[in-house]
Description:
By secondary structure, this protein is an alpha+beta fold. The chain folds into four domains: about 45-55 and about 370-445, conserved putative lor/sdh protein from methanococcus maripaludis s2 fold, CATH 2.40.420; about 55-65 and about 255-365, Efflux pump adaptor protein, beta barrel domain (Elongation Factor Tu (Ef-tu), domain 3); about 70-105 and about 230-255, CATH 2.40.50.100; about 105-220, Helix Hairpins (Orthogonal Bundle). The protein has helices at about 1-30, 105-160, 165-220, 265-275, 285-295, 440-445; strands at about 40-50, 50-55, 55-65, 70-75, 80-85, 90-95, 100, 225, 230-235, 240-245, 250-255, 255-265, 300-305, 310-325, 330-340, 360-365, 370-375, 380-385, 390-395, 400-405, 405-410, 420, 435. A hairpin with a 4-residue loop joins strand 14 and strand 15. The radius of gyration is 54 Å and the shape is rod-shaped.
Amino acid sequence: MNKILKFMLITLPIAGLGAGFLAYTVSNRPPPDRHVLAERATHVSVITAETRLVNPVVSGFGRAEPARVYAAVAQVAGTAEYVNPALHRGEILPEGSVLVRLSPADFNLAIAQSKSAIRTAQARLEELTVAEANHAASLAIEQQTLTLREQDLTRAENLFQAGSAPQTSRDAALAAVLAQRQRVQSVKSAIALLPPQRAVQKEQIDASRISLEQAELNLARTELTLPYTARVSMVAVEAGEFVRAGSTVAELDGIDAAEVEAQINLASLRDLLRLAVPREGMLPMDPSAMTDTIRNLDLTVTVNLKLGGETVSWNATVDRLSDTINIRTGTVGVIARVEDAYRTAAPGSRPPLTQGMFVEVVLSAPPLKGLVLPRTALRDGAVLLADEENRLRRVPVTPRLVQDDIIVATDGLAPGARILVVPPSPVIEGMLLEPHLDAALMADLASVGAAE
């Protein structure tokens, strides 16, 4: 009983007071702070699209070769009587220099023989002319004699018919007439043979003159002269050596011009030519027509030689395209021509463009004006930009030029647009951005490919 009374009089009042205090405290406590969820901006690097002039260029490498190579080939055989003392590898010989002279003795003898044969045939022609005159005179005499013999035969025939002369007299007169006719016929035959004999001698003269011309031509061929100024690259003869016809005694490289066949990517070359061809023009696909078109385009060609930390350059022109395309590398040979490859040389500072030098050929089209962007900004045919509200926008762009690490756009973007260098992850159209200008990349874009 006491326990129940204590519970009711002490425990319950205390529990009630505690519950009331707790209810009062909870009901009068201020509400907790509420945090409203806000949109979070994504940090991105951007560049400002600026209009610049860019030089479209393509390049390739190749080895320099002389534009002209003279092979001194002996056209006749003979002993080398004279060899130019300066005919040594590396020496430069002027135009008209005598390289090798063969012994002319055999050809002088052939000339003398041909001249002698001509004189002999001419003398024989003169003999035939005299013989023709003699035969004509003899024929006249023989014909007069024949006339007399025929008159004698007529008298003998008349006397025989009258019975005043024996038959033997008539037969003797007839025999004399026949004999005289034989002599007349012999003279006529001799005269008839004179035209063929004269023709034979004329043919003999013509043949001898041809032999004389051949001998004189061979005599001229004993001396090998240089048709243009050139540098000796190979010598295969010494004085006193016998030189066979058809053998090459020396080779010389012309110094007036050099050529470099540079291997250039076909697709890159096509894009460059499309930029160089006027908009109203079309780039032909026929190789010969394409070569003519390339020669007429406003292309700037430079040949560069790396010498340590320095670069030596020569101005060049596109001369022609190679006849084949490398199917393994997809490149085509573009042959650049450098004029005065030696005359611009300076000892100690600028070497001549000589055979075998490994050089770079750079082809440049007229400057292209457009917005210069980093190549990484173009993805799937579009660029990402931050609009005026710093929202992500995707804009389709077809670049006019893709070169090295940059692209040049002429349509689809406005100058001043803020282009994302690297896209965020994930890419959500309209997402909020916190753009930061990449000044270092802007400086690089201003220098890469800038037109001078």
